[in-house]
Amino acid sequence: MRNLLATQSALVQGLAEGARIDSLFAVTEDSDDDDISSLKNEGLSNMENWSVEFLETLEVLLAERRVDEALAALEEGQNTVREAKHRCTLSRSAIFSLQSAISEQRQKLADQLAGTICQPSTRGVELRSAVLALKKLGDGPRSHTLLLKSHHQRLQSYVQSLRSSSSLSGGALTATVSQLVFSTIAQAARDSLAVFGEEPAYSSELVTWAVKETEDFALLLERHILASAAAAGGLRVVTETIQICLGHCSLLEARGLALSPVILRSFRPSVEHALSAYLKRIEKSSAALAAADDWLLAYPPAGARPFSSTNSLNTAVGSQPKLSTSAHKFNALVQELLEDIGPLENLKLDGPALDGVFQAFNSYVSLLINALPGSTENEENLEGFSNKIVSMAETESQQVALLANASLLADELLPRAALKLLPFSSNRMEMTPRRASDRQNRFPEQREWKRKLQRLVDRLRDSFCRTHALDIIFTEDGEIRLNAEIYTCMDESMEEPEWFPSPIFQELFIKLTRMASIASDMFVGRERFATILLMRLTETVILWLADDQSFWAEIEEGPKPLGPLGLQQFYLDMEFVMLFSSQGRYLSRNLQQVIKNIIARAIEVVAATGIDPYSVLPEDDWFAEIAQIAIKMLSGKATFGDDEEDVLSPTASV
Asked: Among 189, 293, 418, 454, which is most buried by a count of CB atoms within 10 Å?
């Protein structure tokens, strides 16, 4: 009331001063001028009365919160002021006083509307009406900012309430909060569009606000859910959280709010952290099981997820891999890892994921190498695994199982799991041309990745071959069994020897035959790997002989020269190796060439003594027959009569 009386007093005083000023210029010479002056005074009195009534009415409308009528009254007041200025029906001071009173009431209404907008209970139609009214008062930017602030405050209240509730946790809490956040953003977008349309300034502010709300939401999840999950290697928790959020984000894209990049950018550090922790978990779990692994191949344990994606039970059972315990664990963890990473294609984590799997497989192969007795690579480049205890593969069957583990993982299981990282790999019918192109472009990368895995298997295979070659070449005391004395001492005896391959090459044949039998059971459908294994093992022994400088120094320059009988025995041994390798289908061109070279070298040694080596050597058929007889005898498949035993003499056919 005090404000109303003060306003009215100022207005009346201004009108009175205007009347006195007008009276100074009144013309009193004739009666017409007197009539004009009387009309002016009557007009001033009417304007004064209208102004008082106008302000009283406006105060009542504001007090009763009748916003629409107040807006109409303010509009009427502005029109009256403009008309008074045009017709000069009010003095300048009176117009100024009326204008000030209207502006003051306008500001009161604006503050009242702002307070209404910020009330938590204001929502829906009431909220939009208040925002629209404030906009009509000429304060559009403020009204839009307050609209967004209202949604923010309401969202914070809801989130705080959910956090304090113990009924939700984990994925349920994530889904609820995510739906709440993005539905609030969607409602804010609808309100903004309804009131402000698509004006660029307001649209820009809406987008900025939505991005900020999304970042705050991501930070909330990071602190309360993702940080602990990522540290523990809970990759599935992290990826499921992101997928939930992306699902809600996609509903906003129709409104022009593409918030998925914000989610991916905000959560990428957590995914990378979880990926790193999960890869360490793979290494630690595999190492822990390798410490107690019996290195016996078996199907996955009961309850394990089927490897095959087919619906046919028979096909699924038939496709299950036979691995040892630690290899099953390694495979299961990698399958889970790539399955979890696959849906997050937009994060482009396929490269880091494959690199991480490669490093984990490298560590696992190092464990397998350490499981070989007497491996020369023990405790080399194990990246923290050298202090781990590894169960030793004592038997040949267990040692071949090490190779079966690594080869099956590198050749089939891991590359097949990597296909989960390709877009739409499980549903090619839905693949767009762009995605199909991306998929084909990634094939070379995955082929190179597979080759890298296979090179790790080659390292294990080479270590395996080296271990078994050394077992043949050296005794348990470290003495060399494959030495020049085997051949140089033969010509000291006056009696003709019983021709048969040297014991060391007999042992090589027996070992290879045994290995072939074991490999045929373990490498079903992968016979090529078994063939290469036998080929490499044979090559390792022969290449060692070809490169042994001490052997050839004694043969060529030793006190006992290589004689005809020694040359014949050496020739027989090499022909024996070539024959059983050929019959076993693992004679490589490289091995054949190396054997020919060392035979030629031995012949040159004998020729250097003045003896014609070809005059003392039997025909090639003799060597082939002796080697074939040896193969049958060592295989337990031969029964000989007297006539067949004569073949053992190089002069029997003469």
From this structure: 293
Separation in Å, CA 504 to CA 405, 484, 575: 30, 13, 14
Map 79-118 to HEC letters. Answer: HHHHHHHHHCCCCHHHHHHHHHHHHHHHHHHHHHHHHHHH
Three-class SS of residue 499? coil
What distance in Å separates the CA atoms of residue 380 and residue 185, rounded to the nearest whole number? 56
Going by the DSSP 8-state scheme, the letter that residue 500 receives in this structure is: -
363-394 tens-digit pLDDT: 999 999 999 997 655 444 444 444 568 999 99
Which of 35, 34, 3 lies closest to 100 in space, CA to CA? 3
Look-up of token digits 């059983």: 580
For residue 80, which amino acid is it? T
pLDDT in tens, 39-93: 445 445 565 666 666 666 666 666 656 666 666 666 666 666 666 666 665 656 6
Of 397, 419, 403, which is closest to residue 364 (Cα–Cα)? 403
Rg, Å, the chain Cα set: 48
* Alpha-helical regions (H) of 419-496: 433-473, 485-488
- Tallying the residues shown for the chain, one arrives at 654
Q: In whole angstroms, give the CA distance from residue 642 to residue 628.
A: 17
Q: What does the block give as tokens for 260? A: 């998925």
